[in-house]
Amino acid sequence: MRQGYALITGGRQGVGYFVSLGAHRFLTSQGWPTQGRILALVPINEQPDYDFAEPMYFGRGRSERRRQMLRQAPVFLMICGRSGTTHEYEIACRYGTPVIPLGITGGAARVAWSEILSRLHEAYQGRISLQEFQRLNEAMEPEELARLAIELAVRLTMAWSGR
Predict the structure, then answer these.
(1) Nearest-CA neighbor of 58 among 70, 76, 75, 74?
(2) What one-character DSSP code corresponds to residue 87?
(3) pLDDT of 74-102, one tens digit each?
(4) Residue 51 burial (10 A CB sphere; 0-12, 13-18, 19+)
(5) Residue 100, H or E segment
(6) What is the enclosing helix (H) or strand (E) of 59?
(7) Is there a contact between 27 and 33 (Cβ–Cβ < 8 Å)?
(8) Given this model, what pLDDT does residue 63 score?
């Protein structure tokens, strides 16, 4: 995790848990503090499902939390998913939040990957090439896929930071 960046998840089991756990392990293995780097957006009066994420309270339910999370996020990284992830994708598109779907993970991310492929230049304004985008739907080592996703997320964050 680069300096100045934080991981934001919905604080629940599944992908959010595993991504947060990986970030926590990486930060601690480097001797870096985790404070303010792994955040879980949860509804008011709830706690994250795991104790290594710092809670941030938004809204009273899932829909409101999703809207707040995607309003705050400079990029939405999509990993597999079902109806909730599809809802988050729709919200991100409405807000103009750039989406990086890891199509190879299947589910809602694969559907979003196919949809974005049909309008690639419009979606990224030329900041992600067709070859880079296609790689998000190719089999590769998890570490390589993570590096690619982070590289693209940082690029889009830098480009859209003034939005």
Answers:
(1) 70
(2) H
(3) 999 999 999 989 999 999 999 999 999 99
(4) exposed
(5) strand 99-102
(6) none
(7) yes
(8) 85
**Which of 122, 117, 114, 57 is CA-nearest to residue 96?**
122
* pTM of structure: 0.84
Which whole-number Å values give the CA distances from 73 to 40, 41, 46, 110, 158, in the listed order? 12, 11, 21, 21, 12
> DSSP alpha helices (H): ranges in the chain?
15-29, 62-72, 83-95, 107-117, 120-124, 130-135, 142-160
Taking the C-alpha atoms of residue 122 and residue 127, their distance in angstroms, rounded to an integer, is 10
**Tokens 């809802």 sit on residue:** 87
- The residue assigned the tokens 């694969």 is 110
Token code pair at residue 132: 């880079």
Q: How far apart are the first and last CA of the chain?
A: 23
User: Cα separation of 39 and 43, whole Å?
Assistant: 13
Closest CA to 16 of 104, 84, 96: 84
